[in-house]
Amino acid sequence: MSRFCPRAEYAEDQPWGKTVLAAHVLHRGFQSGALLGSVAGALRFATTQRTTPTSTSSASANSTMMRKPQVSSTSSSALSATSARPQITGRLIAGAGTGSVVGTVIATIALWGRMNGREDIEWRDRSWRLLQNRGQVEVDDWSIIGAVAGAAGSSVIKGAAAIPPWKRLLGGAGLGNVAGVAAYMVWRYGVHGGNH
């Protein structure tokens, strides 16, 4: 997104100062919220999957009327792992969807608190520095590509059908956004050794 914003030679001439800075801050709030929300969703899934062992008396254990059919441990663990995949995917997407909204709201409040009453040149200067930072522009490119791919893919993922459409779309976009930044870091620092 920032790749397509007009850039001035000097900070005091930077157009769209408030728009560029606000878009950057809200984008990062969306991204951070999606990451934290998906972690919360994964933790919630992990805590609900714990089962407490129940003790049975020897009389009921020996009773033929109370016996359940025995399932081998390998087939039962494979079955539970297969059925858990859509559940955790759904929890990750739902958590990311909720987190992205919360993160965007918090970023909006933080931006207002930090920049309220500031001179126009301060908005322009911060925006100009963001647009001049080549690494930041690359992060924006990769994260937006990831967000679009995540939003598009969220409708076909198993376990996401029961999630409300707005949460599924935002969650997919948020997870894609985070995945885009992770892919950028691998590409830039792993493949290219941090060189531009």
Describe the structure.
With 196 residues, this protein is mostly helical. The protein is 72% helix and 0% strand. It contains 6 helices and no strands. Helix 5 packs across helix 6. The chain is globular. About 9% of the residues have low confidence.
Please sum up the structure shown.
With 196 residues, this protein is an all-alpha fold.
Topology:
Elements: H1 17-49, H2 58-62, H3 73-115, H4 120-132, H5 134-153, H6 165-191
H-E order:
HHHHHH
What's the count of strands? 0
Averaged pLDDT = 84
Largest sheet: none
* Shape, per Cα inertia axes: globular
- Measured between the Cα atoms of the first and last residue, the distance is 19 Å
Number of helices: 6
Strand content: under 5%
Oligomer: single chain
Which residue ranges are poorly predicted, with pLDDT under 50 across at least 5 consecutive positions?
A: 52-69
Secondary structural class:
mainly alpha
Helix content: over 70%
Key terms:
mainly alpha; 0% strand; 6 helices; 196 residues; globular
